Structure formats: structure tokens, C-alpha cells
């Protein structure tokens, strides 16, 4: 009976966080792709000025990530994630009322605070605060639902902007945060695994726990392991952001038509969700480290397929790249949990993923210049970063042998 209750509670947690994550991603990260041209035209600036403000918001997210994670470690996720919806609503309202470029920049910087509090890192830290070491299934479930954020967000933003205008679209998203996101966040459990309990559990003798589930305590993990993990996630973050920002043009440089490039891009989202579903159903017992290695190398495999087989392999590129992204999102939450344990997980997540946020902020601008210099050969940069990320995760296994155990 208790097991059935735990499953029901797990489903409720996944549905709550999956829904709020979908809303948060759709109204922040996925907003500029649809609304940036209209924002730029209304404010009489070039579209890159809007994307530059969005990049600055990602920098704010990176800087505040450790602090946001520490707040969740201390207070739980209900207050922090609930607060993120208020921050998002205020930022989107400010964006809607922006009379100038400077005001728009200020609004995006404020939205960066909301992203630090309310995106995946905050959701994962909330799950670990509630579920402890048994968080992997819930993390996978949340990413499975939120994988549809772009599928929901892009068409909805486009429809609202066409029907009402981009400013009204921002106000509508702000209202959804207050009317939907905030009440759902209030339904989250207000308490979970207490930090003191987690530390006490980690301090137990190794003989008290089965060897197969041993995980290195946070204090026992060498700094080199943290550096390797942060580098791998940062390299993958640059690749993901660069491809998401420039894929149609990049594929056209390979010789595809615009329609063909858009069709390949459309395969990425469903491939992400399918890979997460496979992880959820069939790979629950797989080591997060091995999953992360395969996911990090997926983009390299996709590029080699495209270069080796030509444009006929472009759909395979979209599927393999998207599947790697899907699994990597899960690994971003589960691998740090396996390496460090639940004690201080939120703060550790903030530090590990901060370099990745900076890389994601740099990628649209930096990779755009690479495409101007190198043309389609710019794929060589993302190929190299994918291989380096996979190599770092292989080395990480030698530095932290406990990470090879499954959880």
C-alpha cells in the first residue's frame, strides 16, 4: 500500500513540475526565437540586440545559479519555484511595457533571475530535496513532459503575437505564470529530505550500505572530478545552443534547401522526447555516467554521419543529435546526484552548470562568427567539443570509480 502511495506521489510530483517547467521554458528560453523580430522592429533596433539581451539574461542565470540551488537546499523547492513564477510574471510584464532598448535589457536581466530560480536546475534540486537518492525516475519524468516546451511554446507565442501583438503575448505569458504556475508550485510538498538527515546518511559506514549503491560523498569527490564534469556540460551546452540557434542556416551551408533544413530541425524535438521515454522505460538501471558519455558523443556521431554519407543522412543527423540532447538533459540532473549525493545538491548543481550557462550565452554570437569565417566547416567546432566532452566524461570515470555504480 505504501509502495502504491509512493508511486502516486511520484506521479503527482512529475505532473506538477513537468507542467511548471513547460511553462517556464516556453515563456523564457523559447520566447526570443518567435518574438525577437517583432520586438526589434517595434523598438527600432536590430534583432541581434534582442538576442544580446537574452544572452545577458543567461549570464545572470549562471551567476545566480549556486545561490538559487542553496536556497532550495535550505528551504525546499515550493517557495523558490513559487517565487520564480512571480519573478517571471514581473519580468514579462516589464518586457511588454518596454518603451526603449534599455528598458528591454533591464526586463531580460530580471528574467535571468527567474530562469536561475525556475528552470531545470531548480526543478531537479527540488526533486532531490523531496526524493533524496531515489530522484532519477522523477527527474526523467519531468524532462519527458517539459521536452514539449518548444512544441507548445513556439506555436502559442506565434499565435498570440499574430492575433494580439508581441506585447500582449508577453502579458499573456505573465498571466499564465500567476494563474497557473504559481498555484501549481504551491501544491508542491513543503518539505522533503532534511539536509541534516542527508548528511547523517552519507556519514554512515560503508558497510551499512550495499556496495552497488555506494556514492562518493561530496567532500570525497576531488575537485578535478567537478572540473571535468563542469567542462563536459559546458561543452555540450555550447553545442546545443549553437545548433539550436543556427541549424537551418548551417544545414543550408551543407547544401540543403531551407525546407529540408527546417524538416531536419523538426525531428530534434520528437527525438529528444523519444530518447527520454526510452530512458524512462528501459534504462532506469543504467549508470548516469554511461548515459552521459553516449549523449555527449551523440552530436559527434551525427556530424560524422552527415559528412560521411552526405545530405541523405541529414534526417539521421537530426534524430541522433536530438536523442543525445534528450538523454543529456536527464544526465545533467542524475549524474551530479550519483557523484555527490543529495546533501548540498542544489548548490553543487549551481556551480557545476554555471560554466554551461556562460557557454550557452556565448554560443549564438560566437558560433555565428564561426559560420561567417568557416561556412559549413563550422560543424568541425561542435564536433570537436562533442568529442572533448565525451573524453572528459571517460576520464571522469577513472577519477571517480564510484560513479560507475548504478543508483
What is this structure's SSE topology?
Elements: H1 2-26, H2 32-43, H3 47-75, H4 77-96, H5 101-118, H6 120-131, H7 136-146, H8 149-163, H9 166-186, H10 195-202, H11 223-253, H12 258-282, H13 288-309, H14 314-340, H15 345-374, H16 379-399
Helix pairs in contact: 1-7, 1-8, 1-9, 2-3, 2-8, 3-4, 3-5, 3-6, 3-15, 4-5, 4-6, 4-9, 6-7, 6-15, 7-12, 7-14, 8-9, 11-12, 11-14, 11-15, 11-16, 12-14, 13-14, 13-16, 14-15
* Strand content bin: under 5%
Number of domains: 2
H/E series: HHHHHHHHHHHHHHHH
Please give the CATH architecture of the largest domain.
Answer: Up-down Bundle
CATH H-level homologous superfamily name of the largest domain: MFS general substrate transporter like domains
SS class:
mainly alpha
Discrete helix count: 16
CATH C-level label of the largest domain: Mainly Alpha
Tally the beta strands.
0
Shape: globular
Q: Helicity range of the residues?
A: over 70%
Specify Rg, calculated over alpha carbons. 21 Å
Q: Can you summarize the main beta sheet?
A: none
Poorly predicted runs of 5 or more residues: 193-219, 401-407
Mean pLDDT: 83
GO molecular function: transmembrane transporter activity
Organism: Comamonas terrigena
Membrane topology: Multi-pass membrane protein
Protein name: MFS transporter
Amino acid at each position: 500500500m505504501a509502495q502504491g502511495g509512493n508511486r502516486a506521489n511520484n506521479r503527482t510530483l512529475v505532473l506538477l513540475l513537468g507542467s511548471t517547467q513547460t511553462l517556464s521554458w516556453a515563456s523564457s528560453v523559447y520566447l526570443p526565437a518567435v518574438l525577437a523580430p517583432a520586438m526589434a522592429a517595434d523598438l527600432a533596433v536590430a534583432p541581434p540586440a534582442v538576442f544580446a539581451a537574452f544572452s545577458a539574461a543567461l549570464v545572470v542565470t549562471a551567476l545566480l545559479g549556486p545561490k538559487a540551488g542553496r536556497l532550495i537546499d535550505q528551504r525546499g523547492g515550493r517557495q523558490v519555484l513559487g517565487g520564480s513564477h512571480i519573478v517571471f510574471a514581473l519580468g514579462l510584464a516589464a518586457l511588454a511595457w518596454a518603451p526603449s532598448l534599455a528598458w528591454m535589457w533591464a526586463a531580460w536581466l530580471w528574467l535571468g533571475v527567474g530562469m536561475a530560480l525556475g528552470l531545470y536546475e531548480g526543478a531537479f534540486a527540488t526533486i532531490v530535496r523531496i526524493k533524496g537518492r531515489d530522484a532519477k525516475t522523477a527527474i526523467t519524468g519531468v524532462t519527458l513532459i517539459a521536452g514539449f516546451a518548444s512544441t507548445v511554446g513556439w506555436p502559442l507565442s506565434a499565435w498570440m503575437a499574430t492575433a494580439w501583438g508581441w506585447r500582449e503575448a508577453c502579458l499573456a505569458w505573465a498571466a499564465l505564470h500567476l494563474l497557473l504556475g504559481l498555484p501549481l508550485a504551491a501544491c508542491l510538498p513543503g518539505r522533503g529530505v532534511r539536509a541534516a538527515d542527508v548528511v547523517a546518511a552519507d556519514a554512515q559506514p560503508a558497510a551499512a550500505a550495499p556496495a552497488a549503491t555506494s556514492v562518493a560523498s561530496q567532500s570525497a569527490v576531488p575537485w578535478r572530478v567537478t572540473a571535468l564534469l563542469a567542462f563536459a556540460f559546458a561543452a555540450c551546452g555550447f553545442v546545443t545552443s549553437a545548433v539550436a540557434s543556427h541549424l537551418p542556416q548551417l544545414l543550408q551551408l551543407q547544401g540543403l534547401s531551407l525546407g529540408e533544413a527546417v524538416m531536419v530541425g523538426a525531428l530534434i524535438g520528437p527525438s529528444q522526447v523519444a530518447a527520454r521515454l526510452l530512458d524512462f522505460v528501459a534504462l532506469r538501471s543504467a549508470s548516469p555516467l554511461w548515459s552521459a558519455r553516449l549523449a555527449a558523443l551523440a552530436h559527434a556521431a551525427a556530424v560524422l554521419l552527415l559528412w560521411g554519407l552526405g545530405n541523405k543522412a541529414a534526417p539521421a543527423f537530426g534524430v541522433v543529435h536530438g536523442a543525445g540532447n534528450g538523454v543529456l538533459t536527464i544526465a545533467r540532473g542524475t549524474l551530479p546526484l550519483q557523484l555527490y549525493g543529495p546533501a548540498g545538491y542544489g548548490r553543487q548543481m549551481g556551480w557545476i552548470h554555471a560554466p554551461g550557462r556562460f557557454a550557452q550565452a556565448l554560443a549564438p554570437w560566437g558560433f555565428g562568427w564561426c559560420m561567417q569565417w568557416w561556412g559549413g566547416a563550422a560543424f568541425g567546432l561542435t564536433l570537436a567539443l562533442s568529442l572533448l566532452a565525451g573524453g572528459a566524461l571517460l576520464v571522469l570515470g577513472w577519477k571517480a570509480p564510484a560513479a560507475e555504480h548504478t543508483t
